Amino acid sequence: MDYSHIKKPDLGYPYEFSLDELDAAQACVEAHGFAIVKDVLPTALVEELQASVKEVLDPDGALGEGNSFTHTSFIEHSPTIWKMLDHEPFMKAQRVFSQAEELTINRSAAILRNPGSDPLRWHSDWRGFSRRPPIDAGDVLNRGPWPSGLWFYITGSHPTHGGLAVIEDSHVEDWEGPEGFQLTPDRGSFHPVGTEPHGHIGFDVPGLVPLFTDPCDEIVFADRTYHSAFPNRVDRVRLSCGVGFRPRGYPLNAPWPLSETARAFIKAIPEHLKPMVEEYVGIDTSWRGDASAG
Fold first, then answer.
1. 146: closest CA among 228, 37, 220?
2. pLDDT value, residue 226
3. What is the pLDDT of residues 238-250, one digit of tens each?
4. Mean of the per-residue pLDDT values for the chain?
C-alpha cells in the first residue's frame, strides 16, 4: 500500500516543541502519551550516528532488501552514541522526561530497516500489565515509571519510509483499546473485535497519529503508549536509535550477569559519565524466567 497520501495531522493541541518548551512537551506526554522535540541533536552527530548504526548492525551491507535488524545493546558497541550523553541539550530533555535529575542508562537500541521491510504489529512496551514474575529481559527492564520511547529516527520519520505511528491517549491505565478493537489477553497489543487475539498489523486504527520528524528531532512516548511502524516503501534505508534512562537509585535486580560487552562498556566510558553506568545492568535477550509462576 502507498502511504504517501498521509499528511501531518492537526490534533487540536500542540505536540511538537522546541528545546525551550520541555515542560510543555512533558505535559503533552502526560496528557496524550507522546511528543516531538525539534532539533535536539546537532546535524554532525546525527551523521555520525547514521554511520555507526550501519557499521554495528550491517557492516557488510549483507542484510538485504526487505530485511530489518534490531540491536538491543547498541550503546555497548557504539562509542558514537556516548556523545549524546555529553550533549547537554539532550541530557536536559532526558531529565525532564524521566522526571529525575540523576539518571542511569536503562537500555539502548538501534534499528535498521531496509527498503521493502514490513510494518510492525501494534504493541506497548510496558510489561507491568501482569503481576507475574518477569519471564524475559524486556519484562525486567520495561516495568518502571519511565518513558518507553526516547527515540531518534536519524533518517527522519515519514509514513512512506517506515515512520513511527502512535495512538494518542493510549497510555492511560484504564485504556480499553481503539474503537472496534479489543486488547489481547496480555494487553500487549490489540486485534479487531471478533478475530483471533493476535497483535494487529495495519493502519486502520482510530486514534492513530503518524509522526513526521527530521533526523535531529526526538520522539518521546510514555511507558504504556501503543505504537507501530509503517513499512519502508522508499529506496532508502531507515535508521533509528535511542537511549532509555531510569532514575538513579531505582531498584532493578536483573537476574542475569553483566555480559562481557557490558563490562567492557562500563570500563571504557569516560570517567565523568560513569555515574550513569554504575547501576547499568545490560540485557540478556536469552534469559527466561518461569512463565508458569504467578
1. 220
2. 98
3. 999 999 999 999 9
4. 95
Report the b/e string of 213-252 with b at 16+ CB within 10 A.
Answer: bbbbbbbbbbbbbbbbbbbbbeeebbbbbbbbbbbbeeee
Place of cell 550513569: 276
101 contact partners, CB below 8 Å, separation of at least 6: 95
Question: Could you give the C-alpha distances from 121 to 98, 179, 188, 190, 227, in angstroms and in order?
Answer: 26, 17, 10, 9, 8
Residues 12-64 pLDDT 10s: 999 999 999 999 999 999 999 999 999 999 999 999 999 999 999 999 989 99
89/21 Cα distance (integer angstroms): 12
Does residue 293 carry a pLDDT above 90? no
Query: For the chain, what are the domain ranges?
Result: 16-276
Does domain 16-276 fall under CATH 2.40.50.90? My reply is no
Mean pLDDT of 270-281: 97
Rounded mean pLDDT, 244-272? 95
C-alpha cell at 247: 532514575
Residue corresponding to grid cell 536509535:
241
Q: Are strands 190-192 and 123-124 parallel, antiparallel or unpaired?
A: unpaired
